Amino acid sequence: MSAMAKTYAIILAAGKGERMQANVPKQFLKLAGRKVLEHTLCVFQKHARIDEIFLVINEESRLLVEEMLLSGDFPKVTKILGGGATRRESSLAGVRAVPEDNAYVLLHDSVRPFVSSRIIDDMLEALATFQAVDVAIPATDTIIEVDDRNRITNVPPRRYLRRGQTPQGFRADIIKRAHQLAAKETDVIATDDCGLVLRYGLCDIHVVPGEEKNIKITHSEDLFLADKLFQLNTVSMDPQIDLNRLLDRVVVIFGASQGIGAATAYMARAHGARVHGFSRTDNVDVADTEAVERALDKVVDQEGQVNHVVNTAAVLRHGRLLDRDMDDVRREIDINYLGSIHVARSAFKHLIPTKGSLALFTSSAFTRGRPLYSVYSSTKAAVVNLVQALAEESAPKHVRINAINPERTATPMRTRAFGQEDPNLLLTADAVAAATLRTLLSPFSGTVVDVRRNQDMPQEWIR
Ligand code: C5P
Hints:
- By secondary structure, the chain is an alpha/beta fold.
- The chain has two domains: 7-229, CATH 3.90.550.10; 235-461, 3-Layer(aba) Sandwich (Rossmann fold).
- The chain contains 13 helices and 18 strands.
- It has helices at 36-46, 62-69, 87-96, 117-127, 172-184, 194-199, 220-232, 259-270, 289-303, 326-354, 374-394, 412-418, 429-441, and strands at residues 7-13, 30-31, 34-35, 52-57, 77-82, 104-109, 132-138, 145-146, 152-154, 162-171, 205-209, 234-236, 250-254, 274-278, 308-311, 357-361, 400-406, 448-451.
- Helix 3 (87-96) packs across helix 5, helix 9 (289-303) packs parallel to helix 10 (326-354) and helix 10 packs parallel to helix 11 (374-394).
- The protein is elongated, with a radius of gyration of 26 Å.
- Residues 456-463 have low confidence and may be disordered.
- Residues 12-15, 27, 56, 83-87, 90, 109-111, 191, 218 line the site of cytidine-5'-monophosphate (C5P).
């Protein structure tokens, strides 16, 4: 089969979600600002190899789905199909709608929003060789088989047991045939599609590794876990985003006198951006809301617009909280946390007309408070929380906001706090600057963008 076979993703979303005991089926519950189904669709929409998406729903949710698609975020959804009373019938409705016999078909549960593009890549690669592919993870629990009276009948050896996930991938002719055969029988109970292919012995079914994170949101506990997974979800910036897109964009940087701020200003300028940097050295202290406002107004007076805003200004003070001077603690909060609030408040009104973006800075300490710099780490947790909330508030205006999360970076702030360290163990400010600028250009919003050592960066920036 040619590598260019057309690829359809069929998203099964016709379930009623009875196990969750919520008012709406679980695929329509909201998590991290979007419906579970939207998160799932996003993954397939963004994947370059997916050509079309068929959405299988039940009629009761048609209005909800049509309204969801009005956003225009999912242009790959070309068919909305009515599902059936069972998963098998819903799956059949999707499979039947695939016009070509030589296409690739990926069937996916709508309630698995954490499916990764890596899983999809592996599945499509395997489909070049195999006609059917499943995705599964090792069973960590011992699996027991019981009879109707709840007595154990078998304990299969765990090394051969896997927990099946989705997507499941097929050459279209194989999965169509499996469903045709199943439709001729009565009472075929199938909780997945590979089960049908196996039942009729149509071909070998290859298995690619799944991920623990690719959970199926089934019970209310799963929703809680999924919410936590989204909260801690971080991404790495795509090194392919071309920094030359900054040409003639107006970029405003707070904290631009040194460290990451200075490196970001330098790199943006080198790619043709019109950069305006501010810092305490020119009397723009982010803790001073009016100073921030005036700085941005001045840029708009000069340039007529602002496309991107970055706030790197922060301080890190060491010491046990009980030993610290309260004025000093307040000052740290004012700069690190209120500073981000001031920049966000002032920047938004200027970013609305340009549909621009804003980057704030967090630190790897955001996930857990750090002793001896409790104030710094808690302000950085607050910044992530702020970014998540503001991303939702600003989405209707198409303004994007993200938090950059660099590993320890060689900056004057770090040297002041931790002394001289082995430079090989530190990120360079240039690496962080490149990731920050790419984030500004990316479609992401509400995301924590990890910057790690050894991530790809353009050679010219490795000084
Ligand atoms: O019921 P189960 O947990 O297997 O559901 C897995 C997926 O199949 C869910 O995304 C659900 O919406 C979908 N489904 C369906 N039609 C059904 C039952 C389940 O599309 N009749």
